[in-house]
Amino acid sequence: MPPAKRLRASTREWCDRNSRPKSPILTSAVQPEPTRWQKPGPMGRNDWANFHSRYQVEVTTLRNEIERLQGGKQKVSRKKKSSKPTSEDDNYLRENQQRLSRPRWQREKYITPPPEQFSYRPHLTGRSTPRPEHGRPVKKPTVPCCFQHEDLETEFWANMRFPVSRKALRACPSKKICELSQPRQFPRKAHCSMAEDQIVRRRKMTPRQWRLHLQRLEFLSKPNPRVLADLICCCS
């Protein structure tokens, strides 16, 4: 049996130190969210409003708790009076509440400046002043409640005329408006002018393309194999 090999002192210390189990470090799985007082930066307006409402609730609950505790019979010394909340305590709480609810950096409310008034507004020639037209929008026509015959109703609607705006009479329609005013054509006009000789005719598929096409259709017609694997087999 070969003699045991001696190790250096530094190697032995290293083996002893690394052979020990690591000490468990207990850490919570979910870290709690930091409170408002742990967050960096000053408080905003919304934070101050939330603090103000929370302070009111806490003061009310504290006052109710004091009244509840002092509601029973207690031994009161002759020298010292009962410690019920007085008007002075209410004034102190109200002053403290106003002091704490006041923001650190106060800023005045922004007031929108009035629109600038120009002393001289020239009237450009050739341009009419924008003003609403008289008689617009057009009132609804008075329609009889019933017609004795269909021909009378057709004649009534055929002779119905609406007043046309003066601006519409003087306006010059654009090319697109004239195109939209025309009745729709069927078949529709092609978006690009292309002669019939330039259109590439559709060719037939080769035998190989037809065979691949049939294989593709057969594959797409089959259900998903993963869905079939999840289904319970009822053959047995």
Automatic annotation (TrEMBL):
Region (Disordered): 1-48, 68-139
The name this protein goes by in its record: Uncharacterized protein
Bias-annotated ranges (Basic and acidic residues): 10-19
InterPro entries in the cross-refs: THEG (IPR006623)
Source species of the chain: Drosophila rhopaloa (Fruit fly)
